[in-house]
Amino acid sequence: MLWWLSTDNVSDTTKLRKAFAGSISVIALCASTGALAQVGAPSADQGTAGQEGAESPAAATATSTEDIIVTGLRGSLQRNLDIKRTSPGVVDVISSEDIGKFPDSNVAASLQRLPGVSINRSGSRGEPQGITVRGFGGDFNETLIDGRRLSTATGGRSIDFTTVGSDFIGQLAVFKTPDVTLSSSSIGATVNISYPKPFDRPGTRIAATAAGSIQDEAGKVVPTVGALISHTFADDTMGILADVIYTRRDTQTNRVFVSGWQGGLYAPCQLAGSTAASCAPTADATSAAWATPTNRRSVTGWYQQQYGADQRYTKDERIDGRVALQWQASDDVLLTIDDNYSRQTIRTDIAGFGVWFNQGDLRNVQLDENGTTVDFTQAGTPTDFVAGTDRSLLETNQVGLNLKWDATSNLKFELDGNYSKSQLNPDGRVSSENGDIGYGGDLGTTLGVQVNGNSKNSFPVFTTYGPNGDQSRWIDPTVIGSHVTVRQAQKNSDEIKQLRFNAAWEQDNLTIKAGAMYMEDRFKIQNSSTFVNNYWQAYAGYGLPSGRTTGVPIPTSLYQGTIDTDDWIPGFSGSLPSPLLVYDAREYQEYLEGLGNPQTQTIPGFNTGCCTPPFAGTFDLALDPGSVQDIREKTWAAYMRVDFNAEIADMPFRFNAGLRQENTNISSSGLGRLPLSITPSSADPTLLTVVFGETQPITTKSSYSYLLPSIDMKLEVTDKLHLRFDASRTLTRPALNTLTPVLNVGSGQRIGALTATGGNPALRPYLADNFDAAVEWYYQRNSYLSVNLFLKNVSNFVVAGTQRQTINDVGDPSTGQPAVFTVSQRVNGPDATVRGIELALQHVFGDTGFGFNANATFVNTNKPYDETDLSTSGFAVTGLANSANFVGFYDKNGFQARAAVNWRDKYLSQFGQAQNNSAFGAEPTFVNSALQVDFSTSYDFNEHYSIFLEVLNITNETQSTHGRFANQLLDVFAYGRRLTAGARVRF
Fold this sequence. Notes:
By secondary structure, the protein is mainly beta. It is globular, with a radius of gyration of 30 Å. It contains 5 helices and 53 strands.
């Protein structure tokens, strides 16, 4: 069985090459001998669901029996099953139940019901944001719109599914084995989203939806409203379809965070129970402190870089619109033109607190058996109350043209072109405004933090806090002064031009497809901020109550209230200081700007000499040269696929073999600069300022070429029992924003946390040799059982390696030694094998209306994470987790009810944390196991009118992450339940 195949990459690759060599021979044989013996009607083409304008198997069935149109949940499940059954490769499908009625309010939420698919949530909103397929998430999965790449300005290649409305979607297809005529650029899966078109159902069709949604913590009802109209005319030779929908989601989320667990070395004098008269931790063997053994750093441990909590209120608004025109110029020529548009605006208001720690300043340190710091104190710790507003506008438009020409009864041509552009903040808006106020200096606290449990049900707690440890004065307005002020403006764009030409020859049971594709993808990014000119420190220091000459008192008129932290995270033990201060970050900045121009007048509390150019009273932004990227990627592809049907011992057999050649050229440009010096801040002893040399433009070019073969075989042992085998090679390109040629040192640094990031324009794509073997039993209508074994040998893994190094020989004023930066840079690294099994069962209990759909995926790898590996280049496969889904439903007499349970085990999400300055390389981020229960129901009064109700996260589950060990909490989000109720109209 495939499960027991050797995980040795060399041997498996050899087997794959032999299989591919055989498939190429078969192609040549078929081309020379013509069609094989006919075996019934041809099966549905795997590429059908993925090609723009193509008729799906379900549509073909509906066309042949126009008087019977099955709608509703059971009808949708049967159509999905029919496509899965007739496809030569491994594909799972979700179809709309009727025009304007998709099973879920989010595309990713629907996809997680499929075997091997799980979702990744946005912590702040709790919305399904991305998917993982067979352990491969993010950029490993390619998402197409009607067979076309969609641009995304978020920086990666994967799309954010919260930007894709599920209303008025026709079908979702998940190709787990590739179709070379469509794409081979995904190791996980290719997801194709198909939108309806006028000729799908000729005549006049109208659908409308209106709903109200409320999240229990936000407590505000917000609307969703949309309409679709489709009309054909001129004897059904012309048609137009248009739809538009407005969706709003409000979410209030409570969060507790540790922004990074940093690994390093303690001196024995820092540990609890030490009797040392003094403590001066050092790693410098030439220093005077080294003479005392208890000062020498030699004890491995991990500590919290920053600890805090906040509350976030997010307003998410989205407008989706689409127009599709079709013209049947003749019986042989079909022209389709469409335009898809989306606009998403998100605003998040944040209120909370945060405290910062340095390993060398920690005392009374207690470590557990793994080296996690579970208790400590730090003298003189400042306390910051934080406020922020994040704003983003993501606008995407895709225009496409598709021309089909049936030249003869055997020969068909297709020409498809599209232009897509996505822009993040095209209006140049300030995307992030943050303010920190608080107390420190003379009021700094000997602050303590304890870790008392597992990250899945416990968060750290303070043992002491408040000015000089006085908890009753936690938010005393008389001691609170100004600190740092941050403004940022992120601006990205992604532009895709794509042209594809296909030709197909069909005769009897033989089909030969060939074609070519050109794609150009240009990604541009830049960031402006107050870090660049150091304006963020203009009024840092907390002011006179803290014994500082910089910083100004905060008038109480800026405070907008407080937030109670009782029962902050449901199901978690731990307590927080209460309450939290609420103020508006922009109003705080405007108050400081109202103090005047410190260059023309004396303003007590101004941080004189802080900034370059001199701060003139307004928090103007400056372009960060290190953030500027301009990446242009051009790909040419040529492909051919041969399909034929035959018989083996009177059993129908389908075989297809394909080859795809892809050539890619990359041009990567950026602005480079080197640090000249680092100076300490007089306003805050933890802050550092970097002075840079001249900016220099940098451009590099690279290219690569790969041959990507695939084969699919399906044997119908009986009409109900099918066997499958698939083998392929696929690739996943690295994210465009990792291809910058620039080493970027940030302007604002902190003592003990010097960082730099570097891109790598020479990165090669991940390559995977894939094998699938499946048994499927379609034992009755709308019911089946399947077992699918898969194996993926993946090479060229892109890893975010880190190293500690000096840059341009600049010195560190906090140590008097050369500055040592933690430099993160992506490189192509090791190989790994991923193997797993998917189990799926769908059963409908006769005509009772009851049924269920259940699946489970078990996956593992030969490169699991080793928590004991302290090398800076540690590696493991990310995203792998066992998962299971269960959907029970009732659908009869117009009434539908569905309960869905989705579970995903703990998994390694990524290497790297919000603050990643560990001496042991990029620290891991794990996502804890999660189980979510959702419920939906609807009632059809007749074929035109229906009402519906949906409840998400019934059990009020949270989302949490941790670091190297289970008690190293990184984030926990409590995003509550959401209820949606509404009505639909269809004609």
